[in-house]
Amino acid sequence: MRPDTFFDHAPAGTLRLLQITDPHIFSSTHDRLLGVDTRDSLRQVIERVNIEKQPLDATLLTGDIVHDEGNEGYTAVRDILEGLPSPVYCLPGNHDERTKMALLDHGNSHTDKQVLLGDWQIILLDSVLENEEAGFLADDELNFLRQALEAHPDRHALICMHHHPVPIGSAWMDSIRLRNGDELLALLDRYPRARGVIWGHIHQEYESRRNGLHLLGSPSTCIQFEPGNDDFAIDPQPPGFRWLALLPDGEIRTTVLRVANVAATLELGSGGY
Ligand SMILES: [Fe+2]
């Protein structure tokens, strides 16, 4: 018999979501990120997800999908994502090339900016600032967000992007956060149906609340950064993912899980990536 899992005690009508982030896939099968085979690491995460045999409504892939130039990384990642039991909605990170994101509109993978599911809407924003590691939500993105919230006042909203809108207590990482996070949060304050913001980029677990809004960052499917460190430092924790239960009354229940082992080849003393 299957053991109890995270979603088992959620009420009827709950949406079951998976967040995966920052897989940093390379075009070549030979390249490694600080010693890690990122394709293999993503496959391990998907295997771990599938152990629980959850009937998922959606997967959210929150950026840094491909680490280098070339189309091959995008076609490789979408093949790997076919292993997930739900549609995968993808948004770009600072390592991605916007023009290549369309390659992810294929099979199980999608680049929709808005998904309506049950009592919820999921809004996927592009926070990438060209040639910068930091992020910014341009007027077009903020207007899209505002219009989506106005158009569906009866739906709870989960907002997804790559960059973190609040400091996480790590100086090097906070210097490359969303530059107009305060503007985003001021906008969301006006829409109480906005229930949560999730992001990638920080390669670590983060959770806080602000005026009833869940603020959630998730570990990467490959390498992790050490929480609380003001300088770049690799954390030896294994790759992970986040479950999100979106309840019909607007509550969000969430937890992070990790694969059993970190890659033995991880270069822990590295000064950057
Ligand atoms: Fe990343």
Quick synopsis:
With 273 residues, the protein is of the alpha/beta class.
What does this structure look like?
The protein is of the alpha/beta class. Helices cover 18% and strands 24% of the residues. The chain has five helices and 14 strands. The strands form three sheets. Strands 4-3-2-1-13-14 form a six-stranded mixed beta sheet, covered by helices on one side. A six-stranded mixed beta sheet has the order 5-6-7-8-10-9, covered by helices on one side. Strands 11-12 form a two-stranded antiparallel ribbon. Bound molecules: fe (ii) ion (FE2). Fe (ii) ion binds next to loops.
Number of helices: 5
Question: What ligands can be seen in this structure?
Answer: fe (ii) ion
Distance between the termini: 43 Å
Strand order of the largest sheet: 4-3-2-1-13-14
Give the ordered list of helices and strands: EHEHEEEEHEHHEEEEEEE
CATH hierarchy class name: Alpha Beta
Q: How many strand elements?
A: 14
Keywords:
alpha/beta, Purple Acid Phosphatase, chain A, domain 2, six-stranded mixed sheet, globular, binds fe (ii) ion
Topology:
Elements: E1 15-20, H1 38-51, E2 58-62, H2 72-81, E3 88-91, E4 109-110, E5 114-117, E6 120-124, H3 139-151, E7 156-160, H4 171-174, H5 181-189, E8 194-199, E9 206-210, E10 213-217, E11 224-225, E12 234-235, E13 240-246, E14 252-258
Parallel strand pairs: 1-2, 2-3, 3-4, 6-7, 7-8, 8-10
Antiparallel strand pairs: 1-13, 5-6, 9-10, 11-12, 13-14
